């Protein structure tokens, strides 16, 4: 089995037990930013992976959702941020760089511009991972959408990535908070999916291992925060707050936020009409 993993710290709580050998997983783990994993799943190069929520909706016939697993927030997410020189409402006609690593956040950003900020910027896909952010000192970009670890680093004024970037932004928008303000709902950025044509027993074994690993992770957020802080240079306090604001369980309210987001994307013609289909997990065992 080939299993995808995003190397951002927001995945530590799901893979932590597996990484430490506490939960056996008979699979090869393949790391990639969300859009890389989306593409690999779309091509059948992975059996099970975390993907952008929008990747599921883009081709829901192809996938089965893994129950009880997601990356969600109910309010501020802290790692999906629009950094802007001017208020978002004034970005019409200006260049907004959107992270090429992201699919969900780009769609959410576009919905917010259309319905909340009522402005039509020019979206420019670009590299917004930490190495690129650290180097991008000067360009004609009025705002940039940054996700994952790089977004956390850019918000820490004394972090080398923020220092290297050399620019500060007077207007910073947290997309989890903006969605919550708009709809009152949690937001699901990422889901785990299996290929429909991978044997169900094999996907179930991976699912059961990821659930056990995630359960370990939820019990050890302090240890994982310390690891996240060491690996990113983001302070322990910020990593703790970050993990406290995320959830990985796909609760009922999360599902409501997910379906509301996908409903709005369907209405806008951004994803095909689809349905939710879950891997039948009754036998997964704990
Ligand atoms: C909260 C986050 O969620 C992510 C955002 C994704 C997207 O925008 O497509 C996909 C996976 C998650 O890693 C983040 O990376 O900051």
From TrEMBL:
Supply one GO BP term: menaquinone biosynthetic process
Give the Pfam families listed for this entry: VitK2_biosynth
Q: What is the catalytic activity of this protein?
A: chorismate = 3-[(1-carboxyvinyl)-oxy]benzoate + H2O
Under PANTHER family, the record lists:
CHORISMATE DEHYDRATASE (PTHR37690)
Q: What does this protein do?
A: Catalyzes the dehydration of chorismate into 3-[(1-carboxyvinyl)oxy]benzoate, a step in the biosynthesis of menaquinone (MK, vitamin K2).
- Indicate the family of this protein: Belongs to the MqnA/MqnD family. MqnA subfamily.
InterPro entries given in the database record: Menaquinone_biosynth (IPR003773), MqnA (IPR030868)
HAMAP family reported in the protein's UniProt record: MqnA
Q: What is its EC number?
A: 4.2.1.151
Q: What gene is it encoded by? A: mqnA
* One function term, GO molecular function aspect: hydro-lyase activity
The coiled-coil regions, if any, are: none
Q: Provide the transmembrane region boundaries.
A: none
Entry keyword set: Lyase, Menaquinone biosynthesis
Give the SUPFAM superfamilies listed for this entry. Answer: Periplasmic binding protein-like II
Q: Which source organism?
A: Pseudogemmatithrix spongiicola
Which pathway does the record list?
Answer: Quinol/quinone metabolism; menaquinone biosynthesis
Q: What is this protein called?
A: Chorismate dehydratase
